[in-house]
Design brief:
about 140 residues, alpha+beta, eight-stranded mixed sheet, 2 helices, about 40% strand
Length: about 140
Amino acid sequence: MAFNKSLAGYYDDLAHVGIPTDDLPKTEKFWAGLGFKEIGRFDTDDQGHEVIFMQAGHLTLEIWNSDGAVHKTGAINHISLNVTDADGAYQAAKKAGYQLKEDEVQHLDYWQHGIKYFNIVGPNDETIEFCEIVKA
């Protein structure tokens, strides 16, 4: 981690856009019709909920069926920025006074070695996630 590095110095790109759905097969078919291809699928619990990642070109979508869709403009759940050091980014966000949604960096078993992430709240109550796909 670099000393005195601002949060802006931790991300290098858009990681994904998060979209909750009530109907995963219907949503998957819609995005597939727009040219998106599935690049990952994971169980999220023991109740049949899943998350899928779909990609077209440079854009990746994270679509899941455990929270339900909002069904109105602004229904995207979050945007995620790619980081290679979620722990350092979390400390930079905390030091800068951003409103954090978690008390610590979170972990999920997605991809080969998992992910590390945290979220901040934007000025319009939007959620911005900082996500690291763990390499090893």
